[in-house]
Specification:
about 325 residues; alpha+beta; 5-stranded antiparallel sheet; two-stranded antiparallel sheet; 9 helices; about 40% helix
Length: about 325
């Protein structure tokens, strides 16, 4: 979440007139993340989230994202659901941006990740994968393995300003991933961005999963690999195998890994690290100066990649 496009009180009042949600009491920007402009909106009907779509989010993809959230929420996955206006439509325009209002989910994302959080997120991710199995829409992953090289090239050798030689190192790593990337793994609807700040907890249990704007149809185990990168490294970038074991065991209790998924996990983990490395590199050099957001350090994901490059079997992640 972030704020790129501001809205005034008059803007909000005019927008809310298209809904049966009462009057606005407050609308406060949420300055986290890097994708859309988000606001904590409180009306006389209660709390909501107002989202204005920016940057990488294609308007053409919004029916998939909103449809997936509605589908998952209907079968018990705790995720936001879009609120329809008086005309029955959830999407409309605000300040030259496509915008929507969503239900509010209680809870807080964990600032300090404990092994119990990882067990919970493993189970929650598996439930999400199973719940989306009969979702009748599909979306190609717009940030899949074939997309990482063009993103790097768009940033170019400027990345060497962060670490000398990084550009060539990343290109060689991409060459290897092109060769090693697994095929024919079980696929379905995945979240593809399940970082700690996209998961809310209450009383130690997952109470909300948000930010589905990278969701797509891809390998379930790739989604797991994204979580290994996001949840199982410490601040000093050391890998915590206890957290990884709890996450993978939590997932496996709900949805069993296939043999092919187990074998592919080290490569998928390298790919997941690469995906966030190249997009963070792009954001580091291209985020607008006026944006109410701080670009995240890309080098954290290069160090994660280097760890995964030393792994050749799933036992290194605690997966027996």
């Amino acid at each position: 979440m972030a704020v790129y496009t501001d809205v005034s009180g008059e803007d909000v009042d005019g927008f809310l007139a298209q809904y049966a949600l009462g009057e606005a009491l407050s609308c406060v920007g949420i300055a986290e993340g890097i994708e859309n402009s988000n606001f904590a909106l409180t009306t006389t009907s209660g709390p909501f989230i107002l989202t204005l779509y920016e940057r990488r989010v294609s308007v053409a993809d919004l029916p998939y994202f909103l449809g997936l959230m509605e589908h998952l929420a209907a079968v018990g996955v705790p995720c936001p659901t879009p609120v329809a206006g008086r005309d029955g439509r959830p999407l409309r325009q605000l300040n030259d941006r496509t915008a929507a209002i969503f239900t509010f989910l209680p809870g807080m994302w964990p600032r300090r990740i404990e092994p119990d959080h990882c067990a919970e997120i493993g189970e929650a991710l598996a439930r999400l994968h199973l719940a989306g199995a009969d979702f009748d829409q599909a979306r190609v992953n717009g940030l899949g393995v074939e997309d990482w090289r063009p993103i790097l090239e768009e940033t170019g050798q400027a990345v060497d300003e962060l670490r000398p030689g990084l550009y060539d190192d990343v290109r060689r790593a991409l060459d290897a991933l092109d060769v090693d990337w697994p095929k024919s793994l079980p696929i379905g609807a995945i979240h593809a961005d399940l970082f700690p700040d996209n998961v809310f907890f209450r009383s130690g249990r997952v109470s909300g999963i948000i930010d589905f704007y990278f969701a797509c149809t891809d390998a379930f185990a790739y989604d797991v690999a994204i979580c290994l990168n996001a949840w199982c490294f410490e601040k000093d970038l050391s890998f915590n195998i206890t957290k990884a074991r709890r996450l993978l065991n939590g997932y496996g209790r709900v949805r069993e890994f296939s043999a092919a998924e187990r074998d592919a996990l080290p490569t998928l983990a390298r790919g997941a690290a690469m995906r966030f490395l190249v997009t963070r590199l792009f954001d580091w050099f291209n985020t607008p100066e006026h944006a109410l957001v701080t670009p995240k350090d890309p080098l954290e994901y290069w160090d994660r990649f280097r760890f995964h490059a030393t792994v050749d079997e799933p036992g290194a992640y605690g997966l027996d």
